[in-house]
Amino acid sequence: MVDLELRLADSIRDLPEVIATRLGGLRKLVLGVGLSSSVWEGWRGDPARSGGTLLEMAIHQIDLARWLFRKDPVSVWGLGADVPGRDFTLVYDYGDGDSAIVEFCWRSAGFHAHICAYGPEGLLRQDIEMPHGPAHRTLITREGTERGPIPANVHGPVTFRRVLEGFAEGVLFGADLPIPTADGVWAVRIAQASRDALHACSRVAI
Predict the structure, then answer these.
(1) Can you tell me the distance from the alpha carbon of 206 to that of 203, in angstroms, rounded to the nearest whole number?
(2) Domains in the chain: boundaries
(3) Neighbours of 201 (CB within 10 A)
(4) Helix-helix angle 59-69:15-22, to 10 degrees
(5) Using an 8 Å Cβ cutoff, are 93 and 75 in contact?
(6) What fold does the segment set 5-205 form as a domain?
(7) What pLDDT, in 10s, does the model give residues 86-125?
(8) What does the alpha-carbon distance between residue 106 and residue 84 come to, in Å, rounded to a whole number?
(9) How far, in Å, CA of 203 to CA of 193, rounded?
(10) 25-37 burial by CB neighbour count: b if 16+ within 10 A, else e?
């Protein structure tokens, strides 16, 4: 099983239901991460040891986009570089006019993430203090606006416990894995196409 733990965090795992029931589906998604270079030191900042930002960090946002859309992207366009300390923006075409943007800014204070999901019935935005901090959610629908704090702890013990318990149940009892192997394969495939798009600064088919 691939450890794509982001989708098991408290502030993330209910998003498919919220998108389906409150937004009427997903049409556009923006996933952003801001951090300073000093936050990601050691082996993570060494492309030769980490594999670069896409395979070490952004692969979680790449997987999250595909998981929330419930379908595969058909192409990606990129601007920037897959190097720790360098910004990049990736635009994924999911067909039918649907798209996702994954953006990383290394010239920002602290370590934080945001999620914006647009649907025909409304808008959802989440701001998350990474890796252990709180999150705030704003949900705008035809019924009005809801705003407030929600639990997060993306990299907290509860999230990783879910990862390990799900893996153990699959091995010991044959249960469905919380992150199927095929999803891990797709995440790497999309990340590799994203790297090609950044190098070419043009659209690349997936």
Answers:
(1) 10
(2) 5-205
(3) 10
(4) 40
(5) yes
(6) Dihydrodipicolinate Reductase; domain 2 (3.30.360)
(7) 899 999 999 999 999 999 998 888 889 999 999 999 999 9
(8) 8
(9) 9
(10) ebbebbbbbbbee
